[in-house]
Amino acid sequence: MPIKLAANAYGKNAVNLSRVLRHAGHHEFRQVSVSVQLTGDFEAAHTVGDNALILPTDTQKNTVYALAREYFTGPIEEFGLVLARHFVARNPQVSKARIEIVEHLYQRMSFDGQAHPHAFVGGGSEKRRAAVELRADGTTTVWAGLKGLLLLKTADSGFVGYPKDEYTVLPETTDRILATECEAEWEYTAADLDFETQYQQIRTNLLRTFAGHQSLSVQHTLYAIGEEILKSNDAVKEVSLVMPNKHHIPFNLEPFGQTNTNEVFVATDAPFGYITGTVVRG
Ligand SMILES: O=c1[nH]c(=O)c2[nH]c(=O)[nH]c2[nH]1
């Protein structure tokens, strides 16, 4: 039976890049991790070791730094588009370039209401992310999102009405802590949007929905967030969410003669519920 190469792609991952934008009275600081993945006519490289069509991943890495000087001045989605267009335009053997960018969120320091011109503080676990795919025929898809976003609320969350069998010990509750480390990715309907404004609106919608929702489960809140993003942002085609359930379990204080009025919890790392879903139109 003949054997042949099936799906394949290659590129440089984790091109870690920081960028200072020097303005007259203040600096901006950005730090990203960029991954490049090329799909195309790379069969000969695999089957006979002919590298004639293999743009080295080292060159790809250098290209990311070189183009950053002129083009990494705005949202990561735009830098991703610049890189994807570069690799597709310069390399006819490339049928698709995919660029993924994860951004660390340094915040400018502020003292007594005064923004510091050149000192920053890390943004915690939250990261902003974008992915861009450009095909040789010009088809462009842009995704944006976030990960590592810790969300927690101390009211308006419960979990009742689930099936019970001989292994069920979980008590029903109408008042629990709801906590997650949210990952979200949404696909845009176009590649020429104001990505900064879109991102900030969607992130705010996500937070507002989480906070305001009368949650009957993580699944219920995941869907509510996706629904709200789609309802209030025409430029979003679909939203995928990952919302692990970071359990806070009431601690039994009865052995110590105390009543726990839902105030003291064990914050557990593992195991944890893992809830994912994609919300789409139509
Ligand atoms: O919101 C929840 N969804 C579940 O599927 C689940 N399962 C569980 O034990 N607790 C919870 N909470």
Automatic annotation (TrEMBL):
Single GO term (MF): urate oxidase activity
Key words, A-Z: Oxidoreductase, Purine metabolism
Superkingdom in the source lineage: Bacteria
Pathway recorded for this protein: Purine metabolism; urate degradation; (S)-allantoin from urate: step 1/3
One family name in Pfam for this protein: Uricase
EC number: 1.7.3.3
Recorded catalytic activity of this chain's protein: urate + O2 + H2O = 5-hydroxyisourate + H2O2
Family, similarity comment: Belongs to the uricase family.
Function: Catalyzes the oxidation of uric acid to 5-hydroxyisourate, which is further processed to form (S)-allantoin.
Protein name: Uricase
Lineage of producing organism: Bacteria, Pseudomonadati, Bacteroidota, Cytophagia, Cytophagales
